[in-house]
Design a protein that fits this description.
The protein has about 325 residues and is mainly alpha-helical. It is about 75% helix and about 0% strand.
Length: about 325
């Protein structure tokens, strides 16, 4: 019981961190706003900075902030599911080639000069085609194994990387900048965060009812099956949901790495391995981390904006190496 109370306190603290990170994101930038100005703009007023400040908050910063939070939460949620599904602390949505497929679809649409809606549609289609390809190649003798899935994902990701390099090599110079920013992750392209937020909310609603079964699966398939868990069905649910979450995040903000890998590790240290607590905590922590990274990306060398995926990698690599050195024999 004390451990559960501690976990609930951590989740409450993460909720406060999420709110604080979003308010900070709305306040800072080329036009600095006070907390009162931000709250007034969110309430529909003008605040001390007048109509321009309110427009900046409501129409520029708010969609970007909410979208970054949703994408970070989706990536962390997908990473937590993949680590349970494969029982591997190094499992990450990107290792299965899903983001590579999304990159191929999006860059193909960009190369064809299509509108933003078709770029998003291309990313979404590419991610699911990669998912189907990994499923088909890894199925083998009518069963999936962790090793086969991981190796198949690495191969598919490598193939997608080759296609991406080919597209970049033949793309006109005027399109290269936008393509490279998309590949490195760019929350500035988010114009409507509602789809990603809806998927995040529905994803939590869908995963929490099976959290107890995921706890059993994390202890081994044989034990889970002996306790009444329908393991093949649960694995399919977890894999499809993780693929969906990654596809939506990549479609919304481009290719952003390390959120799904590092955040579940950090959260697991704080709340333990109970998926009923880990999944919502990971969503809150992942969303907060990406919002803070995006705020830093657009302010550290302002007015130039850095790709947020670069900062998440710079933050994620040392944190992951620290965790790996601290628990060299840990398992998810």
């Amino acid at each position: 019981m004390p451990n559960r109370r501690r976990a609930l306190a951590v989740i409450a603290a993460l909720a406060l961190l999420a709110a604080a990170s979003m308010l900070l994101s709305l306040a800072v930038g080329s036009l600095s706003l006070s907390l009162a100005d931000v709250l007034a703009a969110l309430a529909g007023g003008d605040g001390g900075q007048g109509a321009m400040g309110a427009e900046v908050v409501r129409h520029l910063r708010l969609p970007r902030t909410l979208g970054a939070f949703a994408c970070g939460g989706l990536l962390a949620l997908a990473g937590a599911l993949m680590q349970v599904l494969l029982r591997n602390p190094l499992a990450d949505p990107y290792i299965l080639g899903i983001s590579g497929g999304a990159a191929v679809g999006a860059l193909t649409a960009m190369l064809a000069g299509l509108a933003l809606a078709f770029v998003n549609l291309g990313a979404f289609a590419g991610s699911f085609l990669a998912t189907l390809l990994v499923f088909g190649l890894a199925h083998g003798d009518s069963s999936w194994t962790r090793t086969r899935l991981l190796l198949t994902g690495v191969i598919v990701a490598a193939g997608c990387g080759a296609v991406v390099a080919l597209i970049l090599s033949v793309a006109p110079e005027r399109q290269l900048h936008g393509m490279l920013y998309w590949l490195m992750g760019d929350a500035g392209q988010i114009v409507d965060a509602r789809p990603a937020l809806a998927v995040l909310a529905l994803g939590l609603i869908a995963t929490l009812p099976v959290a107890r079964e995921l706890n059993l699966l994390a202890r081994g398939e044989a034990l889970a099956a002996s306790l009444g868990v329908v393991v093949p069905r649960l694995k399919r649910i977890a894999y499809v949901l993780a693929s969906l979450f990654t596809a939506v995040a990549v479609t919304t903000a481009g290719s952003i790495g390390f959120i799904g890998l590092v955040v579940p590790h950090l959260v697991r240290l704080a709340v333990g391995n109970d998926q009923r607590l880990l999944l919502p905590a990971a969503a809150l922590a992942g969303g907060s981390l990406l919002v803070l990274a995006d705020t830093l990306a657009r302010t550290v060398v302002a007015p130039t904006q850095l790709p947020v995926g670069v900062l998440t990698a710079l933050l994620g690599v040392p944190v992951f190496l620290f965790l790996l050195g601290r628990q060299p024999g840990a398992r998810s």
